[in-house]
Design a protein that fits this description.
- By secondary structure, the protein is mainly alpha-helical.
- The chain has a single domain, classed as Up-down Bundle (Four Helix Bundle (Hemerythrin (Met), subunit A)), CATH 1.20.120.910.
- 67% of the residues lie in helices and 0% in strands.
- It contains five helices and no strands.
- The longest helix is centred in the middle third of the chain and has 36 residues.
């Protein structure tokens, strides 16, 4: 069942707000204003091994945060496209309707709650390193 016009409007607002927030956060991260002192640690020569390690770890963390934000931005863009094409709100696994409350809470959701739980049980350990 497609979303009502009011539901579509509400969901669009949620998607747009989160999208704008993430774009701003990525821009701030790329500007590096908060981590400027750590960039100096990385670039300082000759570097103390401890400073270099801290600088490298913080740079990696900085990039991981940006990467996570970029992935979420792509998910939001896909959800915006599904909303625009009236394809949002249908579970990609079972084809049943995704509850609107779930979409408001998690606007990028592509699965109903039951299928998402099953998906997480099945793929929870994928990519987890083992010894």
């Amino acid at each position: 069942m497609p979303l009502s016009q009011a539901q579509s409007k509400q969901l669009k607002a949620v998607l747009d707000e989160r999208y704008g927030t993430l774009i701003e956060q990525v821009r701030d991260e790329l500007d590096g204003s908060e981590n400027q002192q750590y960039a100096e640690l990385i670039n300082r020569a000759p570097a103390d091994i401890g400073d270099q390690s801290v600088g490298d770890a913080l740079a990696d963390l900085h990039l991981a945060i940006i990467d996570r934000h970029i992935r979420e931005i792509r998910e939001l863009e896909a959800a915006q496209t599904r909303l625009r094409d009236d394809e949002i709100g249908t579970c990609i696994d079972c084809g049943l309707e995704i509850d609107f409350k779930r979409l408001v809470a998690q606007p990028t959701a592509q699965r109903c709650i039951l299928c998402q739980e099953q998906y997480e049980k099945t793929y929870a350990h994928e990519g987890t390193p083992t010894l």
